[in-house]
């Protein structure tokens, strides 16, 4: 009895003490920032689960924050779903993300983007999926979270900061705000105790990663059609 009480996971893997960070059932990917990793269950970004990144506006530094983790995926493809602007190929190469590893998908309708994201997660062939979205129903988030659990994909949705007030099945929710030398990160939700104080994460200055006019690559881009959506694959 004493042993079971002292180790809640012995009763069920989803249980944890409110004063302690929960254990992670799946794998994790090191964030590359010791201060951030120390505050996350499992010591890194959870794999096979929905993670919410809540931003004041897209492009505040979310890709730079994720750079160490994305660089640790080896040669597995990285999908950029509905990025806010055309990715800057030179900037991405500068931070160590090879263009041949990236796939950009643009959908005319949010329903097509959600369908595509679900298929990518269920296939489990991609190392990471970054999905920028404005308004997504909770039921759609649950469906994506369920699909993510069948893979070891790093799945992050970048959504408006106002969405922090809405319910989400995400196991981890972080609010990102620009700071002088990087980002201020508030932990909105995690499996563990609440943290009132924000984290200060310095980011190395890099070229602009998103641009209204930047070209993704000088190399040809092959159009791919999938359920009526327009996609671009870098080769």
Describe the overall structure:
It is built from six helices and 14 strands. It is an alpha/beta fold and 235 residues long. The chain has a single domain, classed as Rossmann fold, CATH 3.40.50. A hairpin with a 2-residue loop joins β13 and β14 (229-234). The longest helix has 14 residues, at 110-123. The N and C termini lie far apart (58 Å).
What does the secondary structure layout of this molecule look like, with pairings?
Layout (H helix, E strand, L loop, with lengths): L1 H5 L21 E2 L4 H4 L7 E2 L2 E7 L6 H10 L6 E4 L4 E2 L1 H6 L7 E5 L3 H14 L4 E5 L5 H11 L5 E7 L11 E8 L2 E8 L9 E4 L7 E2 L9 E6 L2 E6 L1
Helix pairs in contact: 5-6
Keywords for this entry:
6 helices; Rossmann fold; two-stranded antiparallel ribbon; globular; alpha/beta
Shape: globular
Number of domains: 1
Oligomer: single chain
Q: Any idea of the CATH topology?
A: Rossmann fold
Q: Biggest sheet, in brief?
A: 10 strands, mixed
Query: Count of helices?
Result: 6
Overview in brief:
The protein is an alpha/beta fold and 235 residues long. It is built from six helices and 14 strands.
């Amino acid at each position: 009895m004493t042993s079971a009480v002292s180790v809640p996971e012995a009763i069920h893997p989803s249980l944890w003490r409110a004063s302690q960070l929960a254990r992670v059932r799946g794998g994790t990917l090191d964030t590359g920032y010791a201060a951030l990793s120390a505050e996350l269950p499992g010591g890194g970004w959870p794999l096979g689960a929905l993670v919410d990144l809540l931003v004041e506006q897209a492009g505040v530094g979310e890709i730079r924050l994720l750079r160490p983790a994305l660089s640790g995926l080896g040669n597995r493809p990285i999908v950029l779903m509905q990025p806010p602007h055309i990715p800057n190929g030179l900037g991405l190469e500068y931070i160590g993300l090879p263009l041949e590893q990236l796939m950009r998908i643009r959908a005319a309708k949010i329903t097509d983007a959600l369908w595509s994201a679900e298929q990518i997660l269920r296939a489990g062939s991609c190392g990471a999926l970054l999905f920028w979205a404005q308004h997504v129903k909770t039921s759609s988030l649950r469906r994506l979270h369920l699909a993510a659990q069948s893979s070891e994909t790093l799945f992050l949705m970048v959504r408006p900061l106002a969405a922090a007030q809405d319910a989400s099945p995400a196991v981890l929710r972080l609010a990102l705000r620009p700071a002088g030398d990087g980002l201020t990160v508030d932990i909105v939700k995690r499996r563990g105790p609440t943290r009132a104080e924000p984290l200060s994460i310095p980011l190395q200055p890099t070229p602009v990663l998103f641009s209204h006019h930047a070209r993704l690559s000088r190399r040809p881009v092959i159009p791919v059609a999938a359920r009526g959506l327009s996609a671009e694959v870098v080769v």
